[in-house]
Amino acid sequence: MSTDNANNMQDYHVFGEYGGVNPSITDSATFTFMTTEKMQQLFSEEVEGCFLYSRHLNPSSHHLSQAIAAMEGTEDAQVMGSGMGAISSTLMQICSSGDEIISSRTIYGGSYAIMKNFFPKFGINTHFVDITDLEVIKSKINEHTKVIYCETISNPLLEIADLREIRKICDEHDIKLVVDNTFSPLVVSPIQLGAHIVVYSLTKYINGMNDTTGGAVCGTHEFICSLKSVNDGAAMLLGPVFDSYRASNVLKNMRTLHIRMVQHSKNGMYMAKKLEEAGVKIFYPGLPSHPQHELIKSMINPEFGYSSMITIDAKDEETANKFMMAMQDAKVGFFAVSLGFYKTLFSSPGSSTSSEIPKEEQDEMGMTSGLVRFSVGLDMDIERSYKRVEECMKKVGMI
Ligand code: PLP
After folding, report:
1. Which residues make up the CATH 3.40.640.10 domain(s) of the chain?
2. DSSP annotation of 348
3. How many whole angstroms separate alpha carbon 147 and alpha carbon 170?
4. Is the pLDDT of residue 184 over 60?
5. Which residue's CA is the closest to the ligand 1 atom numbered 13?
6. Residues 264/378, Cβ–Cβ less than 8 Å
7. Is 2-254 in CATH node 3.40.640.10?
8. Mean pLDDT, the chain, integer
9. Best substitution site from 157, 201, 374 to test ligand 1's pocket, by max atoms within 8 Å of Cβ?
């Protein structure tokens, strides 16, 4: 299945206007029309291959959108200026005042914050739940529920959402299942497991270069057109557009995603096994000790492994901080938020990417202050990298 997705992504190819092997970059915000009728038509409906204004659609972002749709197996996609642009536009497009969202409580801090603190200003309220507990999800459904929102592999505790089962619940109540697959592109294909809409932060694995933010929404042609509607489309009216130069770069970088994901996962698995052998408390879905290992095994496209996100418990905040600084000094990687880079990145979720989640709620979901989240990089010699990690753990008294 996944190889099909990777193949489809590669089959989507557009030449430059002089036969260049990459599409030309469209360096224009607006586009000319040869007839007044055509422009009028475009304001009332989608016209294939016709461009109006770059906040609506630009050929360069269109090519990237189509490559992502091919990878995801959706009819259409729309790229955005950031992952948060994709998430906020999607949820605001679906929900109106009075509607409710049921969201996993272990999600990226920005996604949590927009649902917890920002959407209530517009009368959209969210119930945060343990997404691994299907009965709790069901108990929060009422006639106002419009969306169930989750991450395939959650940030930062790496819990797995059982997309097949959650979709069954959605079908019973006519609810949309929106899935953030940022941690596992190609590894999991959420549409094949039941997601209605898949969102991405392209900033991470898909671009892989850490040189820009970017986002994408993948879904039906109808939904993507609704996002771009000049009258009531969240993408068109809130304006989280992706610049054409950046879109062109991300498309080129995405051409190696399948190779990078294989290598990330290989290194992630090596590092996870070694850390577990060393006696560290570890969360990695690829290890049989992960409580949902069998579930994720049934969801992945095996040739791409289990991705390279690992979270460990360094016992307490002070040790975690010393450990991260020691790893940076030992050139294991960088103390930085984000993920999917060629270098290993590590940070402490409680005080960074999940700091938007109040302390009591962090405690409730098992997010302790000693957690260190790794995005394992594309290291050529992962054994050498692990030896460095081991030295750092000894130095700070973790082992
Ligand atoms: N989704 C996940 C899982 C993330 O980790 C992040 C960012 O860290 C986002 C969404 C938001 O993406 P962006 O920073 O591109 O807006």
Report:
1. 2-254
2. -
3. 8
4. yes
5. 83
6. yes
7. yes
8. 95
9. 201
E strand residue ranges, 119-186: 125-129, 145-151, 176-180
Architecture of domain 257-396: Alpha-Beta Complex (3.90)
Name which of 104-108, 147-151, 211-215, 361-365 the model is least confident about: 361-365
Distance between CA atoms of 143 and 145, rounded to whole angstroms?
6
pLDDT of 138 reads: 98
Answer yes or no: pTM beyond 0.90: yes
Q: Which atom of ligand 1 is nearest to the CA of 107?
A: 3
Which of the listed residues 84, 243, 375 should we mutate to test ligand 1's pocket, taking the one with most ligand atoms within 8 A of CB?
84
Q: Is the pLDDT reported for residue 215 higher than 90?
A: yes
List Cα–Cα distances, 313 to 113, 125, 333, 352, 384, in angstroms: 24, 32, 18, 16, 22
Contact 176, 44 (CB under 8 A): no
Interval 365-384: pLDDT, tens? 888 899 999 999 999 999 99
Instruction: Take atom 5 of ligand 1 and give the residue whose Cα is closest.
Output: 108
- CA distances to 239, 367, 385, 394 from 377, rounded to whole Å, are 33, 24, 10, 22
Sheet containing strand 197-201, strands side by side: 76-80, 215-219, 197-201, 176-180, 145-151, 100-104, 125-129
Over residues 20-35, the pLDDT tens digits come to 999 999 999 999 999 9
Ligand 1 centroid, distance to 47 Cα (angstroms): 32
Task: Please write the tens of the pLDDT for every residue from 122-148.
Answer: 999 999 999 999 999 999 999 999 999
CA distance 388 to 225: 50
Angstrom distance (rounded) from CA 65 to CA 44: 22
* Positions of CATH 3.90.1150.10 in the chain: 257-396
Choosing from 155, 157, 181, 206 the residue with most ligand 1 atoms within 8 A of its CB, the one to mutate for a pocket test is 155
Distance CA 54, CA 44 (A): 17
pLDDT confidence bin for 350, thresholds 50/70/90: confident
Residue 49 phi, psi dihedral angles, 5° rounding? 70, 15
Rounded Cα gap, residues 24 and 86, in angstroms: 25
